[in-house]
Design goal:
The structure holds two protein chains of two kinds.
Chain A (H helix, E strand, L loop, with lengths): L6 H14 L5 H29 L2 E4 L10 E4 L1 H24 L2 H5 L2 H17 L3 H20 L4 H32 L4 H11 L3 H18 L8 H6 L3 H25 L5 H25 L3 H22 L2 H32 L15 H15 L6 H14 L3 H26 L15 H19 L1 H16 L1 H9 L2
Antiparallel strand pairs in A: 1-2
Helix pairs in contact in A: 1-2, 1-5, 2-3, 3-5, 3-11, 3-14, 3-18, 3-19, 5-6, 6-7, 6-11, 7-9, 8-20, 9-11, 11-13, 11-14, 12-13, 12-17, 13-14, 13-16, 13-17, 14-15, 14-16, 14-18, 14-19, 15-17, 15-18, 16-17
Chain B lengths: L1 H19 L4 H22 L20 H32 L15
Classes of the chains: A mainly alpha, B mainly alpha.
InterPro entries (chain B): CPA3_antiporter_subunitC (IPR050601), NUOK/Mnh_C1-like (IPR039428)
Main location (chain B): membrane
Organism (chain B): Bacillus canaveralius
Chain lengths: 493, 113
Amino acid sequence: MNNLIILPILIPLISGVFLIFFSKNIRIQRWVSALSSLVTMILAVMLVHQVKSEGIQTMNVSNWEAPFGITLVSDMLSALLVLTTSIIGLTCIIYSFRSIGEDRERFYYYPVVFFLIVGVNGAFTTGDIFNLFVFFEVMLMSSYVLIVHGGTKIQLRESIKYILVNVISSALFVITVGFLYSVVGTLNMAHISQRINEVDESGILTVISILFLIVFGLKGAIFPLYFWLPGSYYAPPAAITALFGALLTKVGVYSIMRTHTLFFSHDTGYTQQILSVLAVMTIIFGVIGAIAYWDFNKIIIYNIIVAVGIILFGLSTMTPTALAGSIFYLIHDMIIKAALFFLAGIVITITGTSNLRGFSGLIKPYPGVGWTFFLAALALAGIPPLSGFAGKLLIVQGGFEGGQFWGAGIVLMSSLLVLFSVMKIFIHGFWGSADTFKGDDKVPVRALMIAPIVLVALSVLYGIGTEFVMPYIIEAAETLSDPSIYIEAVLKE
Amino acid sequence: MEILMAFVIGILFMAATYLMLSKSLLRIIIGTGLLSHGAHLLLLTMGGLKRGAAPLLGEHAKAYTDPIPQALILTAIVISFGVTAFFLVLAYRAYQELGTDNMERLRGTERNE
């Protein structure tokens, strides 16, 4: 029993509720949101430390014993993801101070951001399948509000599609939970896992596992369920897109990881094969989109899809090496995607367009933006000293160990095309003559640059300090590859 | 009883899918309403439709119906209620701003982005 687990959910919730009462006072909004997200981050660091020193932490809400009440479980994977979420939440709030505009700030912007973080942190921490659904809805409701916040025409148009897709996937989630409940008769994730192992070799479980894959695949944008993502993520302002790109799809990926390692470890051949084919197709369609577009935002958006594919490919091989690689890559990708979307927002502030044909030569007046983007681009592609390298290396290594040579080869090839797509931005946008974008006076970007610089620095440190973070990643991967650790921690037989 | 419910739920899902594939935004929202009805009925059916008293301890019955699916449905109903209210207001706003409820005309093209 340990109340530290619930604090990264509770503190954003309380500050979100508190901020509703002071919606017109921007000074209070900014101070409270910066402070409380800083506190959340510190608590998340403490949580990671505690999980490292004392093993998996569980908390039975209101002291009901494990299968009967809601249990919050923090193993290393969820603790690390909660920490990453808190870091991204903090940088996003700092970035919003200068970029989001006072009209939006007055209209409950910060409270909704906090409710989004409540949903994401809750989804990472919960140990109950229906509670996962509820936290998904908390997250999605906030994302509906954020995607349409400001009410421009493109936002209204795209949010209709976004909401429709998510309403359908939520209904599917309820249906799937209904099926699972009728088979196993419990909702606690550890208990479900235990009972699934008892009934075993039942065809209906494979059907349910594919249904879960469809549900979380719709949230996490895997092939062929990614169609809604490029349009929806194109609509909102940069700070919100960064929050979405870094967090929302990754919650879907996390849920696939959790359900497929914890629940459906009985008949792995069939589901793993489907997962691996879908992951490879996701990578292929993602890179096709990434190299096809001449638009800063669209290229980054398609790179989200590529990254989701790479992480799921690592998961589908089910070797401990590739699992560790997937977790490493997941955290790297959350950080670097947020940084890239922040930079895209800065470039749009400077040039007024995200079309790569509309500007060039940014490196001369804005060297800081240019070199930060260059570092972020190299990290995204996985150049050795930076953070994208170790994760992809482990995934490829695990793919070869698992005998999936084609998939591992495609992961390697995709890095080349990802590098091509981001270098296209760098060459066409930052090199060349500096007189092709509008506005002669320099736009002040120093305050906006804090967030991307912090994130890129973090990603460089994450890459250089691989030796330091690896024990944490390995521990997270161990829990995934051996569900009995999780079950024993929750049910305490 | 469960077989009958399964057919009814199937028909609800069928109607929901048909409505959601149509052009008009209001039909789509009606489709989401039917879809959530189907999902809630399915939760109730999957929890088992055996005979028993309502889950109130004052009933002093030998057997009660399963209270868990009922709690789950109650949660799912208020969530889908909130989402539907938001969706309806959004559709109203979109109609005011964009001047159409035809999904075919709510497309993004290079020119109007």
